[in-house]
From TrEMBL:
GO terms for molecular function: metallopeptidase activity. InterPro entries: MetalloPept_cat_dom_sf. This is Uncharacterized protein. It comes from the Eukaryota.
Length: 76
């Protein structure tokens, strides 16, 4: 059995679709935060959504990986 990791095109497509839905959502109950309140950001995580809430928490790497002009849509 190979120990290398493989991500299928279908998996990437499903993930992209889910992220697109989040990006285009207009739910007034959703909150966005740039503070890692649960201290789970590990340097490789861009953001997380705790199961019990609708809040999206952005990790520090998010601001390095997302274009500044795109951030205005999320945080303004």
């Amino acid at each position: 059995m190979s120990s290398s990791r493989h991500t299928s095109v279908e998996t990437v497509s499903a993930l992209a679709g889910a992220l697109d839905k989040v990006a285009n959502e207009d739910d007034s109950s959703r909150t966005l935060s740039y503070v890692d309140e649960r201290k789970v950001c590990d340097g490789n995580m861009i953001a997380y959504i705790p199961i019990a809430t609708t809040a999206i928490y952005s990790c520090d790497i998010f601001f390095d990986e997302v274009a500044t002009d795109s951030l205005q849509k999320w945080y303004c």
